[in-house]
């Protein structure tokens, strides 16, 4: 019986020592913690505390956070070039990484669009501060091909585009004032890059 009481007293003393040295409570918050390497159980507790203190990651840029526009950049020999520019219109940073969806439309609905992704520039993670901008390069043709009419527009003329940000499902509406897109609505698009 005496041995059990002594053994219990030693265990209790050891627990009190570990608690006093390794765990901060309001009573001992000003104490200096030990500098020796903690045991694996103490280490996992410290990691969990550190993880909880990390700043939250910025959310993805979705259609509610972005405003968009298409700006022409160059033209020549039946080719047209432009930039699809998005601006973070929200009050918090958001992230973009990849390609936008892009469907031409007019008052009657969808206009033929064949979007082709180009690898230059390729996808890269971007964080847009409020007011920050990113662009995707666009290229399309205005010369009829295949069985498209030579007289008049080669395809129905779009008045806007439904553009879906990367990894999202809800589009934002972007005005299109650059005329019909020939070759069945073929548009080459790059991934977004900082602009």
Largest sheet: 6 strands, mixed
| Shape verdict | elongated
Distance between the first and last residues' Cα: 79 Å
H/E element string?
Answer: HHEEEEEEEEEEEHEE
CATH topology of the largest domain: Immunoglobulin-like
Global Rg = 30 Å
Percent strand: 25-35%
Helix coverage percent: 10-25%
State the low-pLDDT regions, or none.
1-52
CATH domain class of the largest domain = Mainly Beta
Number of helices: 3
Second rung of CATH, namely the architecture of the largest domain: Sandwich
The residue-averaged pLDDT reads: 80
Extended strand count: 13
Q: Give the class from helix and strand content and strand pairing.
A: alpha+beta
Quaternary state of this entry equals single chain
How many structurally independent domains?
A: 2
Would you write up a description of this structure?
The protein has three helices and 13 strands. With 195 residues, the protein is an alpha+beta fold. The protein has two domains: 2-52, no CATH class; 59-194, Sandwich (Immunoglobulin-like), CATH 2.60.40. Strands 2, 3, 7, 9, 12 and 13 form a six-stranded mixed sheet that branches. A four-stranded antiparallel sheet has the order 6-5-10-11, with no helix packed on it. A three-stranded mixed sheet has the order 1-4-8, with no helix packed on it. The longest helix has 21 residues, at 2-22. It is elongated.
């Amino acid at each position: 019986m005496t041995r059990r009481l002594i053994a219990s007293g030693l265990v209790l003393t050891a627990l009190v020592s570990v608690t006093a040295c390794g765990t901060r409570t309001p009573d001992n918050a000003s104490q200096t913690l030990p500098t020796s390497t903690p045991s694996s159980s103490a280490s996992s507790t410290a990691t969990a505390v550190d993880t909880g203190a990390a700043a939250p990651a910025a959310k993805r840029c979705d259609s509610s956070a972005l405003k968009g526009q298409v700006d022409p950049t160059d033209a020549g020999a039946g080719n047209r070039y432009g930039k699809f520019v998005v601006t973070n219109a929200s009050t918090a940073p958001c992230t973009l990484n990849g390609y936008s969806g892009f469907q031409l439309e007019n008052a009657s609905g969808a206009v033929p669009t064949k979007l082709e992704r180009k690898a230059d520039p390729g996808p890269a993670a971007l964080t847009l501060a409020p007011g920050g901008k990113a662009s995707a390069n666009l290229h399309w043709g205005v010369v009829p091909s295949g069985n498209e009419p030579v007289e008049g527009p080669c395809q129905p003329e779009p008045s806007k585009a439904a553009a879906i940000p990367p990894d999202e499902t809800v589009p934002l509406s972007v005005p299109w004032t650059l005329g019909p897109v020939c070759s069945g609505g073929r548009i080459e698009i790059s991934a977004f890059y900082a602009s």
